[in-house]
Description:
By secondary structure, the protein is α+β, with helices and mostly antiparallel strands. The chain has helices spanning 3-6, 19-31, 40-48, 79-102, 156-164, 186-191, 200-223, 276-281; strands at residues 51-64, 76-77, 107-117, 124-136, 150-151, 167-180, 228-237, 245-257.
Amino acid sequence: MSDQEQEQYDPDSTVGIPEHGRERLERMREKHFFTSDLTVNEFLLVKAAGFEPLGLVVGSSIYHIGLQMRQWNQNQELDVLTQAMYDARELAMTRMEEEADQLGADGVVGVRLDVSRYEWGNDLAEFIAIGTAVRHSEGVLHRAPNGRPFTSDLSGQDFYTLLSAGYRPLGLVMGTCVYHVAHQGLGGWFSRIGRNAEMPNFTQALYDARELAMERMQAEGEAVEAEGIVGVQLNEGSHGWSSHVIEYFAVGTAVTPISDDHTIPPPSFVLTLNDPQQNEAQGF
């Protein structure tokens, strides 16, 4: 049984939230005082889109990554590592969403998913999800189809533009693949000395890993009945593993239309009021 199955989403749960975290959420809820990692422009645009920031919400999971066997000369997905990276991120996301529920939020904007390694051990990693919980000012329900708060990694500007164009976010969808890239054989190394040549073994491995991550992200988008996914990022990292082990992580915001009118206002020229020398440096 995976940790995803062990910890089901509970909108009333405060399990795992430290005592000071619960006190912080309670003070924000009672005093209508918010904290946010939005920039000034993002904060104002989120409000212009009809949402009120409620507070910064965080989910964290320090995860032990299990042992994974692999063949030195074989391209292969490392299933144990793939599942660990996926489950740990889901735990962090679930806890962030449960914090948002404690504030009565409709969703979380500007979500960031970070992975950090510490000196405690090569098999330990901390997964953090952080964003700003928001609620629609007129009480219009914007939750995901599964009843959980929507999540989005879009900037405040993109969030405003998306809503203005008749779409809304459903949730942050992701796909991951940890892959072992086979080592080159001695014969292949000798055959390529001194000449340009594609490395088909490496090419195919990285191609396969990217496609698996993208395919899984797309499946998550289809599962929430989205029309599509915007703001897709395809990140590559090794997280301290060996040089021939790599993770591809695909993430984006699943969206759905809320109106038939998708007219986008034409852009306008804006001149900043910065220092003249700064304007000159920026090309104004």
